[in-house]
Amino acid sequence: RNRSRRGADRFATLPPEEQDRVANWLLEELRDDERWSQQFDGSQDALANLAAEARADRDAGRTTDLTPEKL
User: Fold this and answer.
1) For residue 61, what are the CA distances in angstroms to 54, 56, 67, 68?
2) Do 14 and 24 contact (CB within 8 A), yes or no?
3) pLDDT higher than threshold 70 for residue 1
4) Would the pTM of this model clear 0.70, i.e. be above it?
């Protein structure tokens, strides 16, 4: 059987209070995932602009190489 079916079967055996706790946790996780996706989707233009600016700065010699050992 697939994992979601096994999970649902196991969930059904939990006491009602535990089902509520698990369901609340899962719903919050799903809301967090949706918020993250929306934020990420909404930032793509800004990230692309920042990357283009960074490339232009590098091409114009306005950057220095990053040396991890010196951080």
Assistant:
1) 11, 9, 17, 20
2) no
3) no
4) no
